[in-house]
Every structure is written in structure tokens, then in C-alpha cells.
Amino acid sequence: MRTLAREFNDLLSESPQPPCLSLYQPTHRHHPSNRQDPIRFKNLLADLHDSLRQSYSDSNHEALLQPLHVLADDRTFWNQTLDGLGVLASAGTFRIYRLQRPVPERAFVSESYHVKPLIRILQSADRYQLLALSRHTVRLFEGNRDVIDEVALDPQVPRTMQDALGTELTQPHLTGSTRTGGGAMIFHGHGSKSDERDADTERFFRAVDRTVWTHHSRPSGLPLFLAALPEHHAMFRRISRNGLLAEGSISINPESLDVDSLRELGWRVEEPRYLALTAELVERFHSAQAKDLASDELANIANAAAQGRVRTLIVDADRHIQGRLDLASGRVVLTAAPDSDDLLDDIGELVLRRGGDTVVIPSDRMPTSSAIAAIYRY
After folding, report:
1. Distance between CA 293 and CA 375 in Å, rounded?
2. pLDDT tens digits, 91-113
3. CB 134, CB 362: distance < 8 Å
């Protein structure tokens, strides 16, 4: 199983050999709803086969489709799905992504991968990570407004204080003793148990902060919220060097919360940030538009994207515009041909390749009625 955040840049930099297959479908986490998922997958697989015969009659269809047929019959896989599925395949390449969002049910055969659903998941403004931290355990979650799931920690991230400190756990340093009148022995040390516990906790938190930043925050680029006891918030924020650690916090022992409670509390601290971010994006667009540095015209934006002029592209998550994009000139041709691409997808990918940002947001947060809007560099 692929980790989307870690390899998306590699995916964008590739030039896969056509035909390229892209399959997306909503899936279900639990029985009996998930029983329909492999059936729907096989129907989409049949659509891919028909499209290949129509558009690439001289291709080796069976070799290209074989990994998808294997996946269709993998019972273990279909019992471990999330809310959506993305599959990308071309000659010598096969990628599977379990997704935290439902995605429209679509199957594409074209000259490049259809990645707009993946861009939406990676670029959506409502995504965040949540670090559930105590003196005993570390757990990391990734979520959005609808769902939160635990992230498999990188092996370098300590799960417990023992993992982090091992034999270096602080031990009492006894320097001498006296005998009381009743014969009891009293040992004298350099520090109290509280001091020793705090020292261990700080060393543990430093190790967690360093490794979570390196292996999770930096690759994902997501804001990180902390769920911990109030006293642990103060210590962790004092020692943290994670530039994505957000201000919002959950001051409670995370060991007392189930996943659904974490989701509710996580969105409670994420929603104000999300609303502020999208509002700021809309304001930036209108301000730039007043200076002729923004547009919501598809053809103009495509041309600017090819020239590398688009700083920020805003795309409607719920729209699809069929057509073809010339990557060199930015010229677009609208078409209803069955093998045509989604222009919103292709322009978004082109902007990312040229070093710009693509943000996919719901229709009700778009700055105009158009399915696309861009803020230009110049």
C-alpha cells in the first residue's frame, strides 16, 4: 500500500507511458456495506477494458489489467478499506491508495493519470494531524472534517518512554543514609522523584518531537494539533521545534478518548483554522483580481499555468470539465470524447509542476461561480 503524501511529488514528476488507467470509487469500512465494493470495482474494471479496446486497440490489455484483476479477488484487501479507493496503472506501474474521503466513481483511460481526487485529498484546507501524547504512549492521527484515522508511525518514532530512553531512564542517585531512632534507614538522593520524572518526560518528548517532525509533519505539510494533559502541553510546546505545531489544543488525557471523540475534538480545533484559511484565500483572490493579477477564465488560467505564472490555483472539488490541455502552450480544447481528461485536474497538476500551489475546496467556498480561479505571480 502506497503512502500518498510521501510519493505524490514523485508521481507528478513521472512521465508514464500511455495508456494510463485511473480508477476511483467510494468504499466502505464495515460489513455488510463493504460487500458491494469489489462488485463495483469489477464493473469499473470492465469499463476500463472497453475504453482500452476503443482507444488503444493495439495495446497489451491483459498485461496492463492483470494487477487490477488480482486486486478484485483479494478478500483481505476489501475487508480493510477506508472511505475511498484510487488505483493508477500504466506499463510497469501499479499504485493503490486507500483514501479518507469518498470519491466519485470513475474510470479513465488517457495519456496521463487523473489525479484531481488525490490533489483534493492532499491539498484540501481541512486536513490536519493530531498527536495524542502522554508519558506512556504516542499515537498519531490524520483527519478532516468527516473522519480521523490512526497513522502508522515511522519506526524511528518512539511509541513509549522505554522505546525512547531504554537503559538511560533516570534512576535515583543515592549518596548516603542515616538511621532513625527506631532503626529505619533513610537514603539521601540528589533529586526528588518528581524531578526525575520530569527529566525523563522532557527527554521523551524531545525524541517524539524530533522524529514526528522528520518522518510525518515535514513530509505531509499538515498542521499538527496536540492532545495531552495541560502540564504536558506546556512542556511539549516549550521544547518543540516542529514548525507545523498549531495553536489549537486538546487539553485532556488522550488515553481516555476513543477515536470518535478524538475526531470531534480534532475538528473543533481545526475548523476555525480552516475557515480562516479559505476566507483569506478568497480575499487574496479578489484583491489580486482588482489589480488584474487573478482570473476565473479557464483558457486564460491554462495559458498562464503553462507559462509558470500561476502562484495559487483554486479548484472546485465538485466540478468536472472534459477536454484536452496542451502542456507546452496551455491551449485547451473542450470535448465530450470518452477518453478526454478533466481539464481542472490537468491544469492543477501543471501548476504544481511549475512550483505553484493548487487548493481544492468545496463549491460553497469558491471565490467565484467558476469551477476554477487563479492568483498570478505577475
Report:
1. 6
2. 989 999 999 888 889 998 988 88
3. no
CA atoms within 13 A on the CB side of 289: 14
Q: How many helices (H) and strands (E) does the chain have?
A: 12, 18
| Residues 85, 112 contacting (CB under 8 angstroms) | no
What's the one-letter identity of residue 46? Answer: A
Nearest to 126 by CA among 260, 247, 9, 278: 278
C-beta of residue 331 within 8 angstroms of C-beta of residue 317? no
Helix orientation angle between 343-353 and 4-13, rounded to the nearest 10 degrees: 90
Tell me how far apart the alpha carbons of residues 219 and 5 are, in angstroms, rounded to a whole number.
7
Grid cell at residue 199: 527529566
The residues with which 93 forms a beta bridge, in sequence order, are 90
Give the residue ranges of the chain where pLDDT is below 70: 1-3, 5-6, 59, 168-193, 338-340
What pTM was estimated for this model as a whole? 0.74
Query: Within the chain, what is the greatest distance between any pair of CA atoms?
Result: 99
| Range 146-168 burial, b when 16+ CB lie within 10 A, else e | ebbbebebeeebbeebeebbeee
- Region class of 10: left (phi > 0), else alpha (psi between -120 and 50), else beta: alpha
- All structural domains of the chain, each given as residue ranges with its CATH number in brackets, are 1-114 (3.30.960), 128-270 (3.30.420), 291-378 (3.30.1330.30)
Mean pLDDT, rounded, of the chain: 88
Q: Which residues contact 321 (CB under 8 A, 6 or more apart)?
A: 298, 334, 342, 343, 344, 371
| pLDDT in the model for residue 193 | 67
